[in-house]
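Training component of the fellowship. As part of building independent skills, the fellow (R.M.) carried out the full modelling exercise for a liganded target. The chosen ligand was S-adenosyl-L-homocysteine. The inputs are recorded below so that the supervisory panel can assess the work.
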Amino acid sequence: MLRKNDIIKLNIGSVTLQGSGVGRHEGLAVFVPMTAAGDEIEAHILKVKSNCAFAKVHKIINPSPDRTEADCPAYAKCGGCVFRHISYEAELEIKEQFCRDVMKRIGGLDIPCEKIVGSESRTECRNKAQFPLEKTADGVKIGFFSPHSHRVNEARSCPLQPKEFAGILNVFEDYIKRYNVSVYDETAHKGLLRHIYLRKAAATGEIMVCPVINGKALPEDERLCSMLLGENGNIKSIIINENREKTNVILGGKCRTVYGADYITDELCSLEFRISPLSFYQVNPAGAEKLYEKAAQFACLDGGQTLLDLYCGTGTIGLTMAKNAKEVIGVEIIPQAIEDAKINAAINGIENARFMCADASEAAKKLESEGVKPDVVILDPPRKGCAKDVLETVAQMAPDKIVYISCDPATQARDAAILTDLGYKAEKLCPVDMFPGCGHCESVLQLIRE
Ligand code: SAH
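Fellow's submitted model of the complex:
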């Protein structure tokens, strides 16, 4: 019987999407983070359950050829990345295999899966970060929460983020010290500055700085603006977001622009996009272009079709496909995102797109009752997937094709099985790595009406 604190020899056979290696000890699966397939290790058992055990590396006896030197000093503590100790090729293989497996295991669908589309790079590939802060005896820590905790690990130079973010965070440290600004303490629900939320438009270089505060205003906000602009001339927008709730949700509903525009502008698939702080925008823009390209391939538009883009955010997917569609209808629940989407259509001179601010299921029902018959429906829901009535209403509209984009292959597989029962055949799958280094994967599924 395996017990806590036992040291055992283990061969790691595979790695989960969350980055844990899996070895077998007398038939029991043992999960060991920070290992690689092919590692021979001594594992220190931390917890034993009836169906599996958890361990940490005690010693590496023989390293896997997949191993590589992690390129981030915060890697072991941060929890943001889980694959920086293995090569990117090995990471992509794990992700592709996960998407195939989950479609079979959860969706019961054994369908062709294209080779995963990888990212150009595992560094500086994200355009957004939300940094929590923590007051210390002699200053402030700015970084990310440790896994499963709300302790801040100092990490200003995250390899996933644009390099310029570190300098902006340093300005905040100076500002906090100089003006004695209080930092939010979530247990006491006291203190002002909660998060520093930064976004950079990769194509134009424009940066948005958005301090999230538990209050109405920041002291000396004009001074803060000039300090920020002195640090980085690409800052085009400084917006204060108010969040006074006792909540884990980072952003509050109110935004007040204290410098520049209410948005920054990016380019994606040769179109211009305005992004405001509360709107969803893909975090990996180079990856997003590849994702949209794949979605367009699976949608097979030839200029004559009506395209329904459910969960459209700022309209990016529908607008990038509009030139090949007769009409695009976008649906999204966040009002600011819909405002952005309408402006995005206008600034790109796109006249065959309209947008509705509504819950996907209500909008689908309304469109269905109006007799709207889309030829192609794009589904790009959040991680929890689509509500069942959305899938039912979409199936009633009877589009020829559904292109289902997902950042959680497990809920995608669940929904694919439901759509199969509603008369659609899951035709092919293509994983796209939008989150290099991290334990997440995007995937695109094409379904065809039978
Ligand atoms: N397709 C967009 C956004 C995808 S993220 C893009 O590629 O950029 C998912 C989007 O679904 C978010 O913008 C979120 O605000 C929206 N959303 C979440 N729940 C929704 C619901 N019930 N109805 C409509 N939209 C919803």
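The panel noted the following from the submitted structure. The first helix runs from residue 75 to 78. The chain has a mean pLDDT of 96.
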